[in-house]
Amino acid sequence: MLKLMLSLSMTMNFLILFSFHPLFMTLIIIMQTLMLCLILNFFSLSMWFSYILFLTFLGGMLILFIYMTSLSSNNKLSLNIYKLTSFILFSLLINFFFLYKMDMNYSMIFFQDSFNLQNFLIMYEYPKNLNMMYNNPNFMITIMMISYLLITLIIIINISNPKIGALRHLY
């Protein structure tokens, strides 16, 4: 199941390179976030971290959607179904070939003796490893990111002028 989600995630990565409409890009990013949260749910004991991550990404996507609708013109979303289907089939074929080769050459190509997939999965079974990102020395990075976001929020509030109005002017 994890390999299927990884291959779908890789397909979404390839698909976003060929999308040109903002709505389609937003849909791909939301599906990519959902796949990331499901994969993260496999590695953690509780699903709260992946749930909060999904809600955070979804809130960011809503803000980007509002920004996109206020600035972009009203273009119709036109999808070429044949081109999209052929691209998805081609990328799935490449992904399944990659996964098949990964199974065949498990220890030779992708995972050397010092790094083993079973050791990697066993390492994430301990509940203490989820808290390590907030412990010493990583807490300084978290505090720096929180401070950066707060300062950016204050600067953006001071730059924007509420007397001017909305970003998009209606003529």
Automatic annotation (TrEMBL):
Subcellular compartments: Mitochondrion membrane
Identification of the protein by name: NADH-ubiquinone oxidoreductase chain 6
Membrane topology of the entry: Multi-pass membrane protein
InterPro entries assigned: ComplexI_Subunit6
Gene Ontology CC annotations of this record: mitochondrial membrane
Family recorded in the similarity comment: Belongs to the complex I subunit 6 family.
Primary localisation category: mitochondrion
Keywords assigned by UniProt, alphabetized: Electron transport, Membrane, Mitochondrion, NAD, Respiratory chain, Translocase, Transmembrane, Transmembrane helix, Transport
Transmembrane found in the keyword field: yes
Taxonomic source organism: Natula pravdini
UniProt enzyme class: translocase
Enzyme Commission number: 7.1.1.2
Domain of life: Eukaryota
GO MF entries: NADH dehydrogenase (ubiquinone) activity
Known catalytic reactions: a ubiquinone + NADH + 5 H(+)(in) = a ubiquinol + NAD(+) + 4 H(+)(out)
Transmembrane segments: 12-42, 48-69, 81-100, 139-159
